[in-house]
Structure formats: structure tokens, C-alpha cells
Amino acid sequence: MTEPAEITITGCNRSKTGPMLATNYQLVASFCLTLSSAPSEEWIHAFEQVRRARRQQTGERLIPARIDAHGLVIKCRPEELQPRVSELQDDVAAANREFKVLLQQTERNATLEEKLRQEIEAAIAKLKFNQ
Questions:
Q1: DSSP letter string, 54-77
Q2: What is the CATH number of the domain that holds 31?
Q3: 2 in any annotated domain
Q4: Fewer CB near the terminus (10 Å): N or C of the chain?
Q5: Into how many domains does the chain fold?
Q6: Contact, 39 vs 7, CB < 8 A?
Q7: 55-104: per-residue pLDDT in tens?
């Protein structure tokens, strides 16, 4: 199995970052954090699972985070940015670990499935029918 490249937060896309009006009529900023590579759908799913698990375990209210074509997008006040980025770096690292486990399970399942197919073929080849 080829080791997947770990995804990391590498910076902030200034052209995709700017002020916005929140639903409670307060100004916040939408920050687009750049990632080291474009994540797969499976990795994004692992990231979302990590975020859900953190929310359930800690009971804390996490800032919404979504991944789009430009990177990882969050909305917060500028003074909250560094603590949020640190939190997200932990979540990205956890998603990398979850994704690696998922890939290992998928590979194991494929190996077991191939072995079972071979056993099925061998069993069919040994069949004897009365005619």
C-alpha cells in the first residue's frame, strides 16, 4: 500500500478571505485556509467525522468549517483566528490518521475478498455432477 500524503494547513488564501455579515448582524470574517493538497472525498468524510466526534466528546461549540475547491473555510472574528487554526490543525492531523486506518481496512477487505473469490473458484472447479 502506498502511504497517502498527509494533508496539512499551509496558509491563508487572502484573495478568498474577507469580511461578511453574520446572521446575528455582527461582522465576522470568512477565512480560507490553504491545504497542502486537494483532499479526496473519503478524506473530507474522515475530517467531518473527526469534527462531529470532537463536538460530541467535548460538548463545545465548534466553529463551522467546510472544505471547498479553494481550501478549508471558517468564519470567525480575526482575534479568534489563531486558536481556531490550532484547533483545526489538530482536526486535520486526526483526519489524516482516520483516513490511513480507512485505507488499511479497505486494503484488508480487498485482500480478503480476493482470497474468497479464489476459494469460490477452487470449490466450483472441484464440483462433480452425476449425469
A1: HHHHH---PPPEEEETTEEEEEE-
A2: 3.30.1360
A3: no
A4: C
A5: 1
A6: yes
A7: 888 888 888 899 998 999 999 999 999 999 999 999 999 999 999 999 99
Q: Is residue 70 part of a domain?
A: yes
Question: What integer pLDDT is reported at residue 1 of this predicted model?
Answer: 56
Side chain identity at residue 58, one-letter code = T
d(CA 39, CA 7) in angstroms, rounded, equals 7
Domain that holds residue 69: 9-125
pTM of model > 0.90:
no
Give CA–CA dist 78/125, Å, rounded.
69
**What distance in Å separates the CA atoms of residue 83 and residue 81, rounded to the nearest whole number?**
6
C-alpha cell of residue 40: 479526496
The answer to whether residue 90 sits within a structural domain is: yes
